[in-house]
Amino acid sequence: MSSREFCEKSMLFVHMILMHVLPTASVRGMPRLNRHFACRSRTPAMGVLDAAVSLLSEQPASVSATSFFDPQENTRRVGAYADRVKRINTLEDGLEELEDEGLAAKTRELRERLQAGASLDELLDEAFAVVREAAWRTLELRHYDVQLVGAMALHDGLLAQMGTGEGKTLVATAAVYLNALSGRGAMVVTVNDYLARRDAETMGQVYSFLGLSVGCIQQGMSTAARRAAYASDVTYVTNSELGFDYLRDNLAMTEAEVVLPAELPFCVVDEGDSVLVDEARVPLVISGKLDTAQSTRCASEFGSTPQSRLGLGPPTHHTHPLPGMLRRRSSPPRSRPASTTTCSRKSRR
């Protein structure tokens, strides 16, 4: 078997095994005995999963453990997730009986329990059940069991591979809602402005129903608008805009120019292969022109010029690759001289 074939098979992650472990998700309103068959007949994406599982099972011995993927560990983890899904399902009937106000009040209740010392992991079952019910009431979309498993993987910081049409956007809502309960914000990073705006408008209805604020970063927004969007409980943003905001924050002369929060606690990366592999290979380039007044003010505030503080010579052009995981500096905002503002990127999608 070629290395390409091995990679293709070994990259069939969590949900490729899910079909062996979990029953197909149910559809609300149908008799319980008929839900399994109804779901399989009305969900073409499940055919893709079946085909993938069949492909993987042709040569099970060829999928061996690597530093990135251990089939036995994956099976054990999925089994644990499956047990949690069963507990989540037992909460559904009780949540169905709540009025809209009562369901929305669950957010305040969960936040109070979190502040009282409960961990996010302890709140996961109820939070996921609340999101599933809210998604049904606002969008008439109900998370499949396997989608809840995918959300658990995201919450644990793992990679959940899903094909087109399998509901990645809906999967993210459960993990994002749970982590947004802390009040420190949660981000969904995607590849272009259209997807960020579309997902903020559609999935944002679920968060708004549950009392969370939703922000969306788009190209050309003002500093004040960006700061307000990043201050929301849930923020949708493209990898490019997030990267440039990070760079601009580290070029800022005053706190008023900084838009990102002090902490970046949780982020879901949509289209992770594109964002973290393809796009990450292309550096983000940003530069600005420093006039005499700025240089004098910087020298008076920090006791040196930007060039001497940063150990730089004459004004030059600086290139910064976008890191896979962004982390704010603890140092104060700094300025960096150069000629004109430029952006070296691949063509936007």
Q: Give the fraction of residues assigned to helices.
A: 40-55%
Q: Which CATH-level-2 architecture of the domain at 3-182? A: 3-Layer(aba) Sandwich
User: Strands of the biggest beta sheet: in what spatial order?
Assistant: 2-3-1-4
Unreliable stretches (pLDDT < 50, length at least 5) are 6-49, 55-61, 305-331, 333-349
The rounded distance between the terminal residues' Cα atoms is 35 Å
Q: What is the 3D shape?
A: globular
Helix/strand layout:
Elements: H1 3-10, H2 14-21, H3 32-42, H4 45-58, H5 71-90, H6 92-96, H7 100-115, H8 120-139, H9 145-155, H10 168-180, E1 186-190, H11 193-202, H12 204-209, E2 214-216, H13 223-230, E3 234-238, H14 239-251, E4 267-269, H15 272-278, E5 284-285, H16 292-302, H17 306-310, E6 319-320
Parallel strand pairs: 1-3, 1-4, 2-3
Antiparallel strand pairs: 5-6
Summarize the structure.
The chain has 349 residues and is mostly helical.
Task: Explain what this protein looks like in three dimensions.
This protein is globular. It is built from 17 helices and 6 strands. It has a domain of 180 residues: P-loop containing nucleotide triphosphate hydrolases (Rossmann fold, 3-Layer(aba) Sandwich), CATH 3.40.50. The C terminus is likely disordered. It is mainly alpha-helical and 349 residues long. The longest helix has 20 residues. The strands form 2 sheets. A 4-stranded parallel sheet has the order 2-3-1-4, with helices on both faces. The chain has a two-stranded antiparallel sheet with strand order 5-6.
